[in-house]
Amino acid sequence: xxxxxxxxxxxxxxxxxxxxxREFVTEDFVNHEAWxxxxxxxxxxxxxxxxxxxxFSDMHMEVLDVLADGDMVAYRAELSGVHTGTLLGIPPTGRxxxxxxxxxxxVRDGKSSEHWATRDDLGMMVQLxxxxxxxx
Length: 136
Fold this sequence. Notes:
By secondary structure, the protein is of the alpha+beta class.
């Protein structure tokens, strides 16, 4: 399961091989952390990945830890990049970011059938200068 997580991250995040998404997700894939109004299935996931690659140059995710039990795999990772494109209407800031994330996948027949994530989106927005924290 560790290698599954690493292979998925390397292909989709670090190399941007979005044409390989079908290798990693089932036909009935559900992304439980889809954004408001976003398709939680395969097509929504593909669009999300494309938006991330359009918004961030030098995007890189490093898998730090992996835990697996039965059909579940969870991994802690660090995502970094430079905000050089528009993301959700936010114009490019040119600033770098580095945040930690947790992802959990249900795996069936060697592919993800479900995905959950906890991301530090607030930390990323602060680093990009989009949000200022009180007293900062």
